[in-house]
Specification:
Layout (H helix, E strand, L loop, with lengths): L2 H22 L10 E8 L2 E10 L4 E10 L6 E8 L8 E9 L4 E3 L3 E2 L5 E8 L6 E2 L4
Antiparallel strand pairs: 1-2, 2-3, 3-6, 3-7, 4-5, 4-8, 8-9
Amino acid sequence: MNARTLARRAVVGAGTLAGVATLVLGGSGVASAETAQSTVWSKNCSGTLMTNYVQGAGGWQVRNYVNNTAGSTTCSGWIDWAEFGNTSNYRGLNNRVWVDPGRSQESLFMPDNSPALARVCVQANGDNTARCSAWW
């Protein structure tokens, strides 16, 4: 079992325990919590890889939370997705969003069950290089 599988199982276990506690307390019974895995920066724009495990609704999901704190620069963020786990052959620019200065926006969720890998990327206008997280 690889480290990624172990990490995902730990998140699922923690989410299940949180869901049980919520049920005991009479709450909404949320099965798992969304978790920030890593953040990348391009000038004053950040993209955060958010993961969520939804039991019975497709399993692992990822999204890009893009926050633009720049005074005058727009930026965009997206998800790169390697459906079969081969990061040399991936689909880029999935669920791309454009974010105006002083705003934040999140992409739609994408499925990310094994063997798929995903990463989030962000690029501010005027930055010649996209900045991407590690593969999850």
